[in-house]
Amino acid sequence: MELTLSRNKLITIGIAVLVVIVLAVTVYFVFNKGLLSLGAKDPAPSTNEPAFKALNTIFTPDVSAGEDAWESQVCAGMTKEGYNLFKKLYAPTIWQAAQAGQISKVSLTFAAVQEKLPNLPSTGTSASGGQVWKLSTGNKDQPYLYAQVAQDPTTRNWMLVRILFAQEAQARYGQ
Question: How many Cα atoms occupy the beta-carbon half-sphere of 26 within 13 Å?
């Protein structure tokens, strides 16, 4: 049996094989580099994550237990650097407001991973990899809160780094 192919058919077959190879390589690199997620969303973090617990504790201070107990609970869910920032910038103001009865209760629920932050080379910090979480507050005046979190390299738990200021969130995310 003899198979005869014309020159035009050979060129057509060659081009088709080349197109299939190019498409296969392109698809491989797109998926391998994470450039296409096929609509997969980041799963909502558990409310048992240390970062989530720290955020809830920040906004529900138990004045009767004392400031040190409150700060210790918050610290348990934060990176070392985040806790130092919290202690200097946020804690005094929030604690004074709590003592004066000026803290309105918020009901934090996860809304989205607003931004994935690049992994930075080791800088001596206690966490690596980061995200900015968008959290719904249930407060119509300030419906969302944005928090930077980092994953503890040992436990893989999400730890709170900081809460973004409202002006920063507005500038970065338009909210």
Answer: 6
Same domain, 70 and 137: yes
Question: Which of 9, 29, 31 is CA-nearest to residue 21?
Answer: 29
- What are 87-116's pLDDT values in tens digits? 998 899 999 999 998 887 778 999 999 999
Domain that holds residue 16: 7-39
Q: Assess if residue 45 is contained within a domain.
A: no
* Shared-domain flag, residues 89 and 30: no
CA separation (Å) from 175 to 45, 99, 171? 21, 29, 8
Read off the pTM. 0.71
Query: Total domain count for the chain?
Result: 2
Contacts of 109 (CB under 8 A, 6+ apart): 135, 136, 138
The token pair that represents 128 in the structure block: 């690596």
Q: How far apart are CA 117 and CA 130, in angstroms?
A: 5
